[in-house]
Amino acid sequence: MKKNALVIGIRNEDSICYYIAKELVKNGYDVYATYQRETEKSVKEIANEIGIKKTYLYDARYDEDLENFTSQVKKDGIMIDALVHGIAYSGSANSPVVSLLQVEWEEFANAIRIGAFSLIEIVGKLIDNLREEGSILALSSRLARLAVPGFNVIGATKASLESIVRGLAESLGKVKNIRVNSIAPGPIPTKSLSKLGNVLEILEAARKKSPLKRNVKKEDIASLALTILKNKSVTGTLYSIDTGMDIMG
Fold first, then answer.
1. Residue 110 lies in a domain
2. What is the phi/psi pair of residue 32, to 5°?
3. What are the beta bridge partners of residue 80?
């Protein structure tokens, strides 16, 4: 029986979720994906390019998008074997937040809903469409465990997401034997990284610190994602993929 995967978080060809979706298609999954209003064109072009079966409008900020998207998945009768959650709060439109003291509740609540609680909302709405012994993978960040100016709110949401992963692993393991895990990549060129400063300088610093003397490749992240999604003996675990940065003093 062919397996179905739902990928939430493709923005463009720089997205980690784009590489994961490609890896899933290559390994025989029927892949479905979501897009936001501002990413509709790029995501639909990607869908045509790599063979994504169908795309759904979903912006985690809006209740009606959640309802419409999940209702359509149910109507289409899609039974999900693998769910990838890769959406994140992208910060203020004007400038990155330097200090948590500058953050107001509305922004923080918005960030938590988009980057963390949306996983609970989606799983809750689609619980009947998640197959027994299915697998869920959330994309976190190694910066969730560090104090990084300009990344404070996003880091807080990723830390919350990691806790949610552990809680869902316990709950869904009991209910449907579903596994829930997360991966935390090291620095890679993405929209989030650009908020921290000069991307090339950050990547070069990461390369120098790594014992492998190179940066993480998105293809390697996708390969690890597939391995975790398929492994039936791991759940509630955070996997780092950072070319060894964390072991260096």
1. yes
2. -120, 150
3. 130
Is position 161 within any domain?
Answer: yes
Q: Is 237 contained in some domain?
A: yes
Residue range of the domain that includes 204: 4-243
Let me know if 159 is exposed, middle or buried by CB neighbors in 10 A (0-12, 13-18, 19+).
middle
Beta-bridge partner residues of 127 = none
What is the tally of structural domains in the chain?
1
Cβ neighbours, 10 Å, residue 104 = 8
The first and second tokens of residue 101, run together, are 């003291």
**What tens digit of pLDDT does each residue of 170-202 get?**
999 999 999 999 999 988 766 666 666 666 777
Does any domain span residue 248? no
Give the separation between CA 38 and CA 16, rounded to whole angstroms.
Answer: 18
Nearest alpha-carbon partner for 115 in 140, 137, 85, 88:
88
The tens digit of pLDDT for each residue in 115-168 reads: 999 999 999 999 999 999 999 999 998 877 877 777 778 888 999 999 999 999
> Structure pTM?
0.93
In this structure, what token pair is assigned to residue 223? 């390969």
